[in-house]
Amino acid sequence: MGVSVRMTRPVLTGLFALLLVASLALGAVSAPSASSATGTVVGQTGFAYLGGLRRFAAAVLWNRLEPVFHAYYAGVPLAEQTYMMPTLHAVIRLDPQFQQAYYVASWIAYTRVSKEQGLAIARDGLAANPRSGLMHSNLLQLLFLQDASKNAPEIGRLIDAVTGGSLEWVDREERFEGLATARDALRAMGQIERAQRIEAVLARMREAGIGLGDHDHDGDGKQDH
């Protein structure tokens, strides 16, 4: 009974959000013609409002999902939490810039559905967020896991981007994780000297109190790096 209630609430919330967005879209269609100045302003304002509401709806869905993920399913490997996929898909459709939804969905799909589908979600996330450090490091990790040798050229480009200074990171912890992913890939590919240079950066970050938390990203009970 408890499982049923917990799984139903995010679904009902998603349906409500989607109905709300659909009603606003219908209102936008019936707004004054954009051929007039007034119609143009109303149309632009309505479109901006609709976009903001879509992002709000995505955040509501995520906030409903995250407590279930962290509390009720604590200790369950992320790959086994396939119940989240419909909600994650809804979040992505509502807000293509919601990076965490791509990050979680790509890993679940990669490990539970197919490697190709997981990679496709990761690529969609990068296409929608081309300056995101998280989306670069996410695709880097999945390509490495799939076939490090075959994917070496693309992995190399992603490592260059992750270790460069042009990407955007939510915070220093996220950047630490991205650099650690790049370091691990370089080590496994035999590029020890370059991996050591990145490790030196990570060591300085640790001295500053960054990157000292939990690194069990996939929920399997083992530290990933």
State the CATH class of the largest domain. Answer: Mainly Alpha
Largest sheet: none
Instruction: Note the beta-strand portion.
Output: under 5%
Global structural class: mainly alpha
Q: What level of helicity do the residues show? A: over 70%
Q: What is the distance, rounded to the nearest whole angstrom, between the alpha carbons of the first and last residues?
A: 38 Å
The low-confidence runs, each spanning 5 or more residues with pLDDT under 50, are: 1-17, 19-49, 68-74
And the CATH topology of the largest domain?
Answer: Serine Threonine Protein Phosphatase 5, Tetratricopeptide repeat
SS field, number of helical segments: 9
Number of strands: 0
Rg calculated over all Cα atoms? 20 Å
Count of the domains = 2
Arithmetic mean of pLDDT: 77
Element string (H = helix, E = strand): HHHHHHHHH
Form type:
globular
Second rung of CATH, namely the architecture of the largest domain: Alpha Horseshoe
